[in-house]
Design a protein that fits this description.
Elements (H helix, E strand, L loop, with lengths): L7 E6 L1 H19 L5 E6 L3 H10 L5 E8 L12 E4 L9 E9 L3 H11 L5 E10 L12 E6 L4 E2 L15 E4 L1 H4 L1
Parallel strand pairs: 2-3, 2-5, 5-6, 6-7
Antiparallel strand pairs: 1-9, 3-4, 8-9
Helix pairs in contact: 1-2
The chain binds inosinic acid.
């Protein structure tokens, strides 16, 4: 396994573990959407790495589109304020929509997005989250249908996830050393 970046405290999911998770999720999604021609939506920018992998693990017909929202402004805490930076190019009325997300923390971002997309009358709308952050005594505002893994309540980076736009290119998911952002 590759040596961890010096700013990484510990590796939570290695490249090999991620491969297995993505393969499993691809199978689950393919099974459920075999004849539904889903529109798979990734939320930029964090979800692109997971999207690129999971779409190749889905073997039924599907199409993709992208959205960009901003909720974390270069920081580490969820603000609950969500702004649509880029909307979809595809009409979703009557479509089976699957939102692919990198990480579910408070779930506020997705809860807002789900409400907005629901108002466009899709046939269905579900979430596939690569990881869900476990916060004791707190449930995220939305419930993903597909979950890759659970991670502890720490700030994680890599595999698409950033801190101030850095670390997205790390091939694994790791906990960022608090000294980097404190
Ligand atoms: P939520 O609205 O609290 O669920 O936050 C969702 C978004 O916040 C994710 O799509 C990420 O962009 C970002 N985020 C939440 N937790 C982390 C983290 O540990 N590392 C990097 N980004 C995070």
């Amino acid at each position: 396994m590759a040596e961890a970046h010096p700013d990484i405290e510990s590796i939570l999911l290695s490249e090999e573990e991620i491969k297995e998770i993505v393969a499993r999720m691809g199978k689950e999604i393919t099974r459920d959407y075999a004849d539904k021609n889903p529109l798979v939506i990734a939320v930029l920018r964090g979800a692109v790495v997971f999207m690129a992998d999971v779409m190749r693990a889905i073997t039924c017909p599907m199409s993709v589109d992208f959205m960009a929202v901003s909720s974390y402004a270069d920081g580490v805490k969820s603000s609950g304020v969500v702004r649509i930076v880029k909307d979809l190019d595809t009409k979703i009325e009557g479509r089976n929509v699957l939102i692919v997300e990198d990480i579910l923390d408070s779930g506020l971002t997705l809860s807002y997005l789900m409400r907005m997309l629901q108002s466009r009358n899709p046939a269905s709308i579900e979430i596939a989250a690569f990881v869900v952050k476990d916060i004791e005594g707190k449930k995220p505002a939305v419930e993903p249908r597909y979950v890759g893994a659970h991670v502890p309540n720490a700030f994680v980076v890599g595999y698409g996830l950033d801190y101030a736009e850095r670390y997205r290119n790390l091939p694994y998911l790791g906990i960022l050393k608090p000294s980097v952002y404190e």
